UniProtKB/TrEMBL annotation, chain A:
Record's subcellular location: Cell membrane
Iron-sulfur is among the record's keywords: no
Entry's transmembrane regions: 42-64, 76-98, 136-161, 182-204, 216-243, 255-275
Coiled-coil ranges per UniProt: none
Upper classification of the organism: Bacteria, Bacillati, Bacillota, Bacilli, Bacillales
GO cellular component term, pick one: plasma membrane
Entry protein name: ABC transporter permease
Automatic annotation (TrEMBL), chain B:
UniProt cross-references to InterPro entries, sorted A to Z: AAA+_ATPase, ABC_carbohydrate_import_ATPase, ABC_transporter-like_ATP-bd, ABC_transporter-like_CS, P-loop_NTPase
Protein name: ABC transporter ATP-binding protein
GO-annotated molecular function: ATP binding; ATP hydrolysis activity
The ABC transporter domain, residue ranges: 3-238, 254-496
Keywords for this protein: ATP-binding, Nucleotide-binding, Repeat, Transport
Domain of life according to the entry: Bacteria
Organism (species): Paenibacillus contaminans
Automatic annotation (TrEMBL), chain C:
Subcellular location: Cell membrane
One GO CC term, this protein: plasma membrane
Protein name (Swiss-Prot/TrEMBL): ABC transporter permease
Single annotated GO MF: transmembrane transporter activity
Any one Pfam family match given in the protein's UniProt record, by short name: BPD_transp_2
Glycosyltransferase keyword on record: no
Ranges annotated as spanning the membrane: 61-79, 110-130, 137-159, 192-210, 237-257, 323-342
Keywords of this entry: Cell membrane, Membrane, Transmembrane, Transmembrane helix
Xref: PANTHER family: ABC TRANSPORTER, PERMEASE PROTEIN, GUANOSINE ABC TRANSPORTER PERMEASE PROTEIN NUPP
Protein source organism: Paenibacillus contaminans
Coiled coil ranges: none
Keyword Cell division: no
UniProt main location, coarse: membrane
Bilayer topology: Multi-pass membrane protein
Length: 292, 500, 355, 326
């Protein structure tokens, strides 16, 4: 459930740490979801399909990088346009390649397998939550840890943080800002590709136009709430996922649906009272343009 | 010859910042560059460091032509630069700041422990003390300066460019820095030092290049010149001696009683301070930076909450009032940090000049743009601010010229009381003389001035009374006309030096 | 840098960017095997081809422009408001309900509805501002989240208590507002309504406020360097609340004129689907928060949208490709080429990365 | 690949000897066809009629309500002989435009606009929803039936309310679960909701969430429960799990309209399609299908539902339109 959001949020966090505010997550995930299905259709292998999705989204995010870094376009404008572009492009390709409108669904297409973890799956209740997911879900947990190590323990990660913290100073140290920002954007593309693949090959095995349904924006919120740290982002995504589950279960009660659907957003807002300004936030705002 | 810069010319639009400049550096020498604000010193060094490309001209290192497309190239050629405005990552530790770009590794990992060790080692070798595990943003300006130098040394620079390194330092820190510079030169490093303080030049430099209006007006051996000749070459005229008349203090304009301000950790940073500033007098505050001067000023201006005590300005209680209200009550303020408090960098000079004058230059909320434009143009002319137009963005002005604009703006408030914090920081000697004269004139007209400066000579030259701050308290008061440097230094040190 | 040059370059570069955007769009058209000339001709016709289409474009530009103007004011004060959508929706629903349930003559309803719409949007935005000022809650996140809350809440109002009970009533919408409270159309047979005049008035007023009043100056300075403004006696919190209030108020007005001038009722989703808020955000950013620039950028974005509709209607190019071309052009319009490219880069580097 | 199971009253019947026609017909949709099979069918109906009767046809999609009004007016300017549009979203704009142009012929599908130059074709989906509910009540083994609906808006009541009535009519003890996806394009969430309802014991879960239905189908396949689709006969996609479908022949509506327009028998006014006209219905019950009946639904159940159908058709059983206002 939270995996696509978390993956996209991690990508966004990486960009934010490099000083790029990436609002194109929604579009990137959508492209990932489509190319996952396309890859599966072309190669017949889910594994290759995931790779294909990752590569396609990286190409797409290269466009983001080129226009916002090389052509110095405003990253937010580019991000918003790319969201529109992704929607148009995937819908068009759906029609051009699969000759369907709306949804591509093939009962015989094989999605990502579900892996059961031995022992864990036998734990009552918890086993059902922790086990029986697609490999990408487990990969995501690994990615969170790797990203954490990468950012805070390696040299490349350290320099990436430097670029985001103070671009001019980094440049004066001879650190190529562009290279790091490109790297972050490409990595974000790869993560969004995985997010899309998990959406269209893991959670379901189909593609519907606009199937991201705002998940990319939730990822944006999760990334900001998690202060662009991998662990924080994971926490924020889990919080959101949990509240979403709560909200679904409240639907049957007498509260109007519109209010139960508000719950995840309101709770996230309230959680901001507890996780505020830990120093990094100010930096995040600087890079995202709100110079407070 | 280690470094030759030949016929360097750099133009920005219609403005020529460097015009056919020749500059040479010998191995192991300390070479000072002096010149007025906007003479083109920083520009020349930015070209050397690959941050700007010269419009024409060539750079040779050990006779071989070099071209620097970026700082990276300059760094590989053994050039390091400490910028006029620091280039630090404030949320990183000192050690991280020093090693960035050439970090120690352990396998695939960034070895932070080794980084600390290396910094300690460098620090010992060159006698430059720092606290490697402190966040750079929390360090005093002096310490940040030292971090910058260590950073350059860590990169293995042979040629070290220091752009106005002493502008923000206290006298003690200056002394330590100059000693470190000599030590570095002694160990074979070659140093280019930009400064406005000619006595520093005479103290450490081997050779001196003087720039004026983008051109070289002299290259001199230290031994064969003197302060007078240098200032003549810089300014193009003789400097007059300032004459300070005896004060005729009137009524108290500012009364501060038992003012207490707590720092972020809850400890008092200004500790029950009481003093008066009367009309027609200049009161100087001296002290090692970090002893509460900044906090004192900020709480006087309403930019920081005072926890106890009262501040009265021209008979009104202004304790913890909003900055706007306090200005209304008759306060103008030359801030100590011109970029943080004093300007909006991406705005024009006119817009920067308007700040604090909004009500004067508007009628029922509508700005009178002609008058503002005229006023700012007048200031630019009167203070000799070098700029192509008053519509220039503030960030394109050299540091000193921007400072002149701020001083002009605040003097033009014509308030009975003025806080002048580091009013001549980064300003050339000609302009400094001019600003000093303006402050004295204001005093003669009956203005009350609180001067806060880490430049002892400035405090001594201008003040009628000198208060020395130490650890948030006023450690003593001296008569400005009789105080000696020794007496002040003793109070500043509180009996023992703070920097040991 | 003198003024005239700056003007020239500020015009030249969008033009260059347009050309480049059109070139890339042409590639997309060629890829689907349609004729580039015909496609662009239809695009032009759909946007400006006749008086009717021109008014269509201006109608579409109206809400985008109002939102862009509002966001510009928040940006000027240094606050990034991502909540225009929610502010617009709340403004729209408040205006609709006021016009429906306030007794009195039509003109009174109309005026009261406009006031209610502006106030609702303004207060909703100021609420986010207040959360920031008082509790240091990141404005970017809070405004984004408050969108969902506002949209669901408005959806609830029109799906349950204030649902349309006349007609087929299948949609979540309010009943239709009395004719007396409609914003008049400017020309018969065209959709352009008096809301457009309101938006033009807003451009003029804000342009004047920003350039010539001390309030505008204080707002700009707060955004440019908040500490400097504080030092000069400008109070940050009132400035932020004012900036957010104006921003949200104009977004609310955008929703209001759509209700009173176009749909004559609040229809759930009708303001969200067209993505007015996102277009407005892009226009404000493209114009660098300048009111006149925002007007031009809004018309450009609206023209691209109406042009794309024309392409869809009259060529074999499918709707999706029309929207692809539109997105591609916007991407490249925001790019900075040539001379200004170098200049901007410098400015950016000096300021760190900036919006 | 995309279009299986055509709806049964074959629209092609009788169209073989169409006269040449120089008429121009346009279908202006208030939304993108996108995820809505209902619009897809309409588009197909129009295209088919166009080919058979040799009329020029064109389909224009709109991105949002304002764009729709512009497209409608543009169609007017382009002088189409007949302008067809559809759904409630089109009502407001059509009322305006049709009143302003009393000479122009308009048809609106799926709702009623009472103007002299408008032909309204609407559907009584509530009849088929009732049947589906009744069928679910008879079929469920666990006495728990679920529905994954698109959004909690009045429109959706056309499916939820009569369904529940039918369910209670045949099985008063059955529990009815409804969950809302909150959108029309989210199969991921729809699947989650279906799995949730399955976890709550439902063995028959109806999809009513546009593209989301595919998520419900997939959940059914994964967990082995039974499901039903909307608008067209989906049963052939996965006969083991998709055991029912609620048919709404918008293609017939579009096709017949054009046919009559070409024949000259076209008249303005309201027509509606219900069980009686076979405009709505269920495979096996009212419409023929190629698919084999899944044993989950016994022939006996089908027969019982057929009886209900007959009662409705004959007027013996009168159902309330859930959207009708008091
Ligand atoms: N990017 C720029 N665009 C336009 N003019 C510039 C730019 N950078 C510097 N200048 C101008 O070039 C001249 C030289 O500036 P520079 O910073 O080299 O002076 P400086 O000698 O270092 O002065 P200071 O002692 O005040 O630091 C100044 O007049 C300055 O306004
Ligand atoms: N010994 C110390 N322990 C903890 N923090 C220190 C210490 N010395 C300096 N600092 C920090 O570094 C900062 C030094 O700042 P700064 O140089 O601005 O001091 P200051 O009070 O403004 O003096 P001045 O007005 O002379 O510059 C202080 O604000 C404080 O936060
Ligand atoms: Mg300089
Ligand atoms: Mg200080």
């Amino acid at each position: 459930m939270v995996t696509p959001i978390l993956l996209a949020a991690l990508g966004g966090a990486l960009c934010a740490r490099a000083g790029v505010f990436n609002v194109a997550l929604e579009g990137l995930v959508l492209v990932g979801a489509f190319s996952g299905i396309l890859g599966n259709y072309l190669t017949g292998s889910v594994f290759l399909a995931v790779i294909f999705a990752v590569v396609c989204v990286m190409l797409f995010s290269l466009l983001f990088g080129y226009v916002s870094i090389h052509l110095q376009a405003n990253p937010i404008v580019v991000g918003i346009s790319l969201n529109f572009l992704a929607l148009g492009l995937t819908t068009f390709c759906l029609r051009a390649i699969f000759n369907v409108k709306g949804t591509y669904y093939d009962k015989n297409m094989v999605g990502l397998p579900k892996w059961d973890i031995p022992l864990v799956q036998d734990i009552p209740w918890l086993g059902g939550v922790l086990s029986g997911h697609s490999p990408l879900v487990y990969l995501t947990i690994v990615i969170v840890l790797l990203l954490h190590l990468f950012l805070f323990k390696t040299i490349v990660g350290f320099r990436l943080l430097a670029v985001g913290e103070n671009g001019i100073a980094a440049k004066s140290m001879g650190i190529g800002i562009r290279r790091y920002q490109y790297g972050a954007i490409l990595a974000c593309g790869a993560l969004c590709g995985l997010a899309g693949a998990q959406l269209s090959l893991g959670q379901v095995t189909m593609f519907t136009e606009g199937m991201t349904s705002g998940r990319g924006f939730i990822a944006l919120v999760a990334m900001m709430l998690g202060q662009s740290s991998p662990l924080g982002t994971m926490g924020a995504s889990l919080l959101f996922g949990f509240m979403d589950a709560v909200s679904i279960r409240l639907q049957g009660l007498s509260i109007p649906t519109q209010f139960t659907m508000m719950i995840p957003y309101v709770v996230t807002l309230i959680s901001l009272f507890f996780f505020k300004d830990k120093g990094y936030l100010a930096e995040a705002q600087k890079t995202s343009g709100s110079s407070r | 010859m280690l470094l030759q810069m030949e016929q360097i010319t750099k133009t920005y639009g219609e403005l020529t910042a460097n015009k056919a400049v020749d500059f040479t550096l010998r191995e192991g020498e300390v070479h000072a560059i002096v010149g007025e604000n906007g003479a083109g010193k920083t520009t020349l060094m930015r070209i050397l460091y690959g941050m700007e490309q010269p419009t024409s001209g060539a750079i040779r290192i050990r006779g071989k032509e070099a071209s620097f497309g970026s700082p990276r190239d300059a760094i590989t050629s053994g050039i390091g630069m400490v910028h006029q405005h620091f280039m630090l990552f404030s949320s990183f530790t000192v050690a991280e700041n020093v090693v960035i770009g050439a970090e120690p590794v352990k396998g695939a990992w960034f070895d932070r422990r080794k980084a600390v060790e290396r910094v300690n080692e460098l620090s010992r070798t060159y006698g430059i003390p720092v606290e490697p595990e402190r966040k750079a943003g929390e360090c005093s300006l002096g310490a940040q300066q030292r971090v910058e130098i260590l950073k350059v040394l860590h990169q293995g620079a042979e040629i070290i460019v220091l752009d106005e390194p002493t502008a923000v330092l206290t006298p003690l820190e200056v002394k330590e820095l100059l000693a470190a510079i000599r030590r570095l030169a002694g160990q074979g490093k070659s140093i280019i030092l930009i400064t406005h303080k000619l006595h520093e030049v005479m103290e450490v430099a081997d050779r001196i290049t003087v720039l004026r209006g983008g051109q070289v007006t002299g290259v001199l051996e230290k031994a064969e010149t003197n302060v007078e000749e240098l200032s003549r070459l810089m300014v193009g005229r003789e400097l007059a001696e300032l004459n300070k008349s005896r004060p005729m203090p009137g009524e108290a304009s500012l009364r501060v009683d038992k003012l207490l301000v707590r720092g972020d950790n809850g400890k008092p940073v200004v500790d029950e301070v009481s003093f008066r500033v009367a009309q027609g007098e200049i009161v100087g505050i001296a002290g090692v930076s970090g002893n509460g001067q900044s906090e004192l000023i900020q709480s006087l201006c309403g930019l920081r909450r005072a926890d106890q005590g009262t501040v009265a300005l021209n008979g009104r209680d202004v304790t913890n009032k909003l900055p706007g209200v306090i200005r209304e009550a008759g306060l103008a303020h030359i801030p100590e940090d011109r970029y943080q408090w004093g300007t909006a960098k991406d705005r024009t000079l006119v817009e920067n000049g308007l700040m604090g004058h909004q009500s004067k230059f508007s009628r029922s909320g509508v700005l009178q743009k002609k008058r503002i434009h005229q006023a700012v143009s007048d200031w630019v002319q009167k203070f000799g601010v070098k700029t192509s137009s008053v519509q220039e963005k503030a960030q394109n002005l050299s540091g000193g010229n921007l400072q002149k604009l701020i001083v002009a703006r605040e003097l033009a408030q014509e308030t009975p009381f003025l806080i002048a914090a580091e009013p001549t920081r980064g300003v050339d000697i000609g302009a400094m003389e001019f600003i000093h004269k303006q402050l004295l004139d204001k005093r003669t007209e009956g203005g009350a001035i609180l001067l806060v400066s880490s430049e002892l000579s400035e405090v001594m030259k201008l003040s009628d009374r000198i208060l020395v701050m130490y650890e948030g308290k006023i450690a003593g008061e001296l008569d400005g006309h009789e105080a000696t440097e020794e007496a002040i230094s003793l109070l500043m040190a509180g009996g023992k030096s703070k920097h040991e | 840098m003198n003024k005239r040059k700056e003007w020239a370059s500020s015009l030249l570069h969008p033009a260059m960017a347009m050309v480049f955007g059109l070139l890339v769009g042409a590639v997309a058209v060629l890829l689907v095997g349609a004729s580039v000339g015909e496609t662009y001709a239809e695009m032009w016709k759909g946007a400006f081809g006749s008086f009717y289409y021109l008014t269509n474009t201006l109608t579409r530009a109206t809400p985008i422009l109002l939102i862009a103007l509002g966001l510009s004011m928040a940006f000027r004060a240094g606050f990034f408001n991502l909540g225009a959508e929610g502010q617009m929706v709340l403004g729209a629903v408040s205006a609709a309900l006021t016009a429906l349930y306030l007794p009195g003559p039509g003109w009174l309803k109309l005026i009261a509805a406009i006031v209610a719409g502006v106030a609702a949007g303004g207060i909703w935005a100021a609420f986010a501002g207040w959360l920031d000022a008082k509790y240091k809650i990141n404005l970017l996140i809070s405004t984004l989240l408050l969108n969902y809350v506002a949209i669901y809440f408005a959806g609830y109002l029109v799906a349950k208590p204030f649902k349309d009970t006349t007609g087929s009533a299948a949609l979540a919408q309010t009943p239709m507002i009395d004719k007396g409270a409609w914003l008049p159309k400017l020309f018969t047979g065209s959709s352009l309504h008096a809301g457009f005049l309101l938006s033009i008035a807003a451009v003029v007023i804000l342009f004047w406020v920003v350039r010539s009043t001390s309030f505008g100056y204080n707002l700009t300075m707060t955004g440019s360097n908040g500490q400097f403004a504080a030092y000069g006696g400008v109070r940050r919190v009132p400035m932020m609340l004012a900036g957010m209030m104006i921003s949200g108020g104009l977004a609310g007005l955008a929703g209001t004129v759509e209700v009173l001038g176009m749909q004559y009722r609040y229809l759930d989703g009708a303001l969200v689907t067209p993505g007015y808020a996102w277009s407005g955000l892009m226009a404000a950013l493209l114009a660098n928060s300048n009111p006149i620039g925002a007007a031009l950028a809004s018309i450009l974005l609206a023209a691209l949208q109406t042009g794309a509709m024309g392409v869809e209607r009259n060529t074999e190019v499918p709707l999706e490709i029309a929207s692809v071309i539109q997105a591609v052009i916007v991407v490249f319009v925001s790019a900075k080429f040539g001379y200004s490219f170098i200049k901007r880069r410098k400015a950016r580097n000096d300021r760190g990365s900036a919006v | 690949k995309e279009k299986d199971g055509a709806s049964s009253p074959s629209p092609g019947a009788g169209g073989s000897a169409a006269p040449k026609s120089d008429k121009k017909v346009v279908l202006v949709l208030p939304e993108k066809i996108g995820v809505n099979p209902f619009f897809q069918l309409m588009d197909e109906g129009v295209k088919k009629a166009g080919k058979e009767f040799n009329v020029t046809t064109k389909t224009v999609e709109s991105t949002d309500p304002n764009a729709f009004e512009q497209n409608l007016r543009a169609a007017l300017a382009d002088k189409y002989d007949l302008i067809i549009t559809a759904t409630f979203q089109a009502e407001d704009a059509l009322k305006k435009v049709a009143a302003e142009n009393p000479k122009q012929a308009f048809t609106i599908i799926d709702t009623v606009v009472d103007l002299p130059n408008v032909r309204s074709v609407s559907f009584r989906e509530y009849e088929s929803s009732y049947l589906l509910g009744a069928l679910a009540g008879l079929s469920t083994k666990k006495n728990v039936v679920g529905m994954v609906a698109a959004a909690d808006i009045p429109l959706i009541k056309k499916w939820t309310t009569p369904f529940e009535q039918g369910l209670k009519a045949t099985n008063p003890n059955a529990k009815f679960l409804v969950n809302y996806v909150g959108g029309f394009t989210d199969p991921v969430k729809a699947k989650e909701l279906a799995l949730l309802q399955f976890g709550q014991g439902a063995d028959f879960i109806i999809g009513a969430s546009a593209a989301g239905d595919f998520g419900v189908f997939e959940a059914a396949k994964e967990k082995n429960f039974f499901t039903s689709g909307q608008d067209m006969d989906h049963t052939s996609k996965d006969p083991d799990h998709i055991v029912m479908s609620q048919i709404k022949s918008t293609d017939v509506a579009a096709y017949e309209t054009i046919k009559e327009f070409v024949n000259g028998s076209y008249k303005a006014g309201a027509i509606d399609y219900g069980l009686k006209e076979k405009g709505v219905g269920l495979p096996f019950v009212t419409h023929e299908t190629q698919t084999k009946l899944n044993p989950f639904i016994t022939q006996e159940t089908i027969n019982k539902v057929k009886e209900l159908n007959d009662q409705i058709v004959s007027g013996k059983l009168v159902l309330q339109n859930p959207l009708a206002q008091k």
